[in-house]
Recover the amino acids of this structure.
């Protein structure tokens, strides 16, 4: 909370025309980018403090308001703080291309040497510098790429701790300007280009930090209440902030594609009706666009190219980029929390947007290249475990501090509830190998803030030994791609037997039943942002990434998909009906499986990317959610089924178990908590598991659920039988008799387009039920002492 002195100081400065939070005028039509900055006389710099890092507005000595700046730069010889303001008295042109002017003013750069050095942290306090001030750093030191030193004071560098960023590199350009590179990008001898220093000023072309007020006003944040949904009760919904509302007809046009758009009641209403408990947002840290995309007229859409780990991506803000994005993000989180929905961020701490030795110099590369990045034996080159040109050196204490400070900031000050770590194996590497006792994992495990939030690992990277599914320690859940592969293969008829499928449906105990881990250590998913959408999974067998401009060479070739006999969209009604049935099969399988289900935005209503399985650079209708799909009967019914299955999952604890099944009988009648059946109604034998099979029955007993509720009462539930049948012909499945059930009530039949036709049918145990070709039948087991017709709903 702001002190009275701070508030008074800000108000006093506003009266005298100094920068203010959210109201500072941008320099010209381009926010100062592309402008040739005029240097102003140096300002007074007081010693300040080395902590906290970054720019912190506060009241300094003698009650004077200002901002403390602190930057770790281990190998630097000198550091200059650069402040950027607009000189409104200058009517000359303000852009490098000669356009602009008209009284809008020219950008003025004030360079302030930071002479205080404490434990490799350069720091100083500048009185009168208030929220809304744009800034950056110039770091002096040796240019010696052969030893990994790439200091270049001609390059303006973004503060790694900047809480807000004004614009981003490449936003207004058809290619990254050569000035943003630390080396001469276009040097004739490209094999040594990275060793030739570029002395042109990059300030007009790069993103700049913005000083923000650290504390949120009382009426914005302090009464926020986190949902704190238990892992076992969670249903995750992966979405893109921009793509989710960009075409939403219920969101005002000026809010579409923004944090405010996601916070709009029309957007939240869909999430609530669907029943998901958490949104997993694709990267919202400030990111930059790659040069090769800009040259093709494209932009980085997914955002896995981070450059600012504390700043909400400015382009997703409807309210402005001079600090307003921070408040807008907080209001979005609060709105989601009020609806009972948690916010999980997809975070990219494994690499940055600076790429390899031929990449741009935007921040860490110029602050201390050797200190922030893993380098090879030849220190000119970067160790690349990410496939993106560089890897952050997480073993270094200051890098680990940067990451953990960022994580704590998003939890404590921005209100988020958890994180999904992109290429988490890269973070778990010690010096070379993946190490589950690595500093990163050890710090997370003992941190009093971070160990209490949701932690999801993408448990692999592209380096040797990087595939670590099932290996992360307790506290962590993992994206389980073994689940994705098994379910896709089963429904396309490619599994040699059902052993792997049995493990995946029941919580993947072969991967996670160790060290106190639980079934919810497995995040089950069939689709994710990378790869086919659910609809494309049953429509295409080959990727169609031509729009990316890479000759369709990008993206995975092994999609484990089946197009139902025709590649691409078709008017054939039989093929279209089969595809919709396959979608119902996949969605039903996902939501009945033990573990934490994750859906991708739009899959519940038939979103398509036209066969693209790598839409990372498609900020257009290819990637955006098409809300008109809801009006089409086939997709409307899929949405209704998805909502109904999620509601069923929420009502029944047997579908969201907190402990693994034992498979053993716990009573004299021989009833077990989990049993598997063949189409003959007999329990699966060892030989059955190894034989080819197109039909599998899974019985979940609600009588033997370990654990008690909040009042100490043992948890009990209905029991269910799910029959999965992937053959192209129907099968007569014999329903198991006592002790499993006396009768069965049909709840879901995916062979039916409209599920209103399915519930209510009561079938006697021991009789055969017709299971249609390629379908799932979900039945509630009715015990012998229950009245016929009792239903689960």
């Amino acid at each position: 909370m702001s002190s009275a002195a701070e508030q008074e100081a800000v108000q006093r400065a506003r009266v005298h025309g100094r920068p203010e939070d959210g109201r500072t005028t941008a320099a010209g039509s381009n926010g100062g980018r592309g402008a040739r900055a005029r240097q102003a006389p140096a300002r007074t710099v007081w010693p300040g403090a080395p902590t906290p890092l970054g720019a912190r507005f506060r009241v300094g000595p003698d009650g004077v308001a200002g901002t403390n700046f602190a930057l770790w730069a281990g190998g630097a010889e000198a550091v200059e703080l650069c402040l950027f303001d607009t000189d409104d008295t200058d009517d000359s042109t303000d852009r490098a291309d000669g356009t602009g002017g008209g009284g809008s003013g020219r950008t003025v750069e004030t360079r302030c040497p930071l002479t205080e050095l404490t434990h490799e942290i350069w720091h100083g306090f500048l009185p009168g510098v208030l929220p809304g001030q744009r800034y950056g750093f110039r770091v002096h030191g040796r240019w010696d790429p052969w030893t990994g030193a790439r200091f270049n004071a001609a390059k303006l560098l973004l503060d790694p701790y900047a809480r807000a960023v004004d614009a981003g590199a490449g936003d207004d350009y058809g290619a990254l300007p050569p000035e943003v590179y630390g080396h001469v990008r276009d040097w004739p001898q490209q094999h040594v280009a990275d060793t030739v220093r570029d002395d042109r000023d990059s300030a007009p072309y790069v993103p700049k930090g913005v000083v923000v007020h650290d504390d949120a006003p009382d009426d914005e944040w302090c009464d926020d209440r986190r949902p704190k949904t238990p892992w076992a009760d969670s249903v995750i919904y992966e979405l893109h902030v921009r793509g989710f509302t960009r075409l939403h007809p219920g969101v005002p046009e000026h809010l579409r594609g923004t944090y405010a758009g996601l916070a709009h009641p029309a957007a939240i209403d869909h999430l609530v009706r669907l029943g998901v408990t958490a949104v997993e947002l694709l990267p919202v840290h400030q990111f930059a666009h790659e040069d090769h995309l800009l040259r093709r007229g494209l932009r980085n859409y997914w955002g896995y190219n981070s450059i600012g780990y504390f700043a909400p991506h400015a382009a997703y803000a409807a309210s402005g980029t001079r600090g307003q994005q921070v408040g807008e993000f907080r209001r979005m989180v609060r709105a989601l929390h009020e609806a009972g929905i948690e916010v999980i961020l997809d975070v990219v701490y494994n690499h940055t947007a600076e790429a390899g030795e031929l990449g741009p110099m935007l921040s860490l590369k110029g602050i201390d290249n050797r200190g922030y990045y893993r380098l090879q034996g030849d220190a000119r080159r970067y160790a690349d475990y990410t496939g993106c040109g560089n890897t952050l050196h997480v073993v270094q204490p200051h890098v680990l501090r940067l990451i953990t400070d960022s994580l704590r900031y998003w939890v404590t000050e921005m209100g988020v509830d958890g994180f999904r770590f992109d290429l988490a194996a890269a973070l778990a590497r010690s010096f070379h190998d993946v190490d589950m006792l690595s500093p990163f994992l050890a710090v997370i495990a003992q941190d009093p803030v971070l160990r209490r939030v949701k932690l999801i690992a993408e448990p692999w990277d592209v380096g040797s030994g990087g595939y670590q599914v099932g290996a992360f320690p307790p506290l962590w859940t993992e994206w389980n791609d073994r689940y994705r592969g098994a379910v896709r293969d089963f429904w396309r008829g490619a599994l040699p037997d059902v052993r792997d499928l049995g493990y995946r449906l029941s919580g993947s105990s072969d991967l996670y039943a160790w060290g106190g881990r639980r079934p919810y250590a497995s995040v089950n998913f069939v689709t994710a942002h990378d790869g086919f959408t659910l609809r494309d999974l049953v429509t295409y067998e080959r990727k169609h990434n031509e729009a990316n401009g890479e000759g369709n060479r990008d993206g995975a070739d092994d999609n484990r998909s089946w197009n139902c006999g025709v590649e691409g969209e078709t008017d054939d009604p039989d093929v279209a009906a089969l595809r919709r049935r396959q979608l119902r099969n996949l969605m039903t399988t996902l939501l009945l499986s033990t573990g934490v289900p994750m859906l991708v935005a739009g899959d519940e209503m038939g979103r398509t990317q036209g066969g693209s399985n790598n839409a990372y650079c498609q900020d257009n209708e290819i990637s955006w959610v098409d809300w008109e799909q809801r009006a089409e009967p086939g997709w409307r019914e899929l949405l209704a089924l998805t909502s109904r299955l999620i509601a069923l999952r929420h009502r029944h604890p047997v579908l969201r178990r907190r402990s693994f099944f034992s498979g053993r009988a716990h009573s004299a009648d021989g009833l077990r908590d989990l049993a598997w059946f063949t189409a003959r109604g007999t329990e699966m034998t060892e030989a059955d598991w190894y034989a080819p099979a197109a039909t599998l029955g899974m019985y979940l007993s609600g009588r033997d659920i370990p654990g008690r509720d909040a009042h100490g009462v043992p948890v009990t539930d209905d029991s269910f039988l799910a029959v999965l049948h992937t053959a192209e012909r129907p099968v007569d499945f014999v329903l198991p008799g006592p002790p499993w059930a006396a009768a069965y009530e049909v709840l879901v039949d995916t062979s039916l387009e409209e599920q209103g036709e399915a519930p209510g049918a009561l079938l006697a145990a021991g009789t055969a039920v017709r299971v249609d070709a390629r379908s799932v039948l979900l039945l509630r087991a009715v015990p012998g002492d229950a009245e016929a017709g009792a239903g689960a709903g």
Remarks:
- The chain has 18 helices and 30 strands.
- The mean pLDDT is 90.
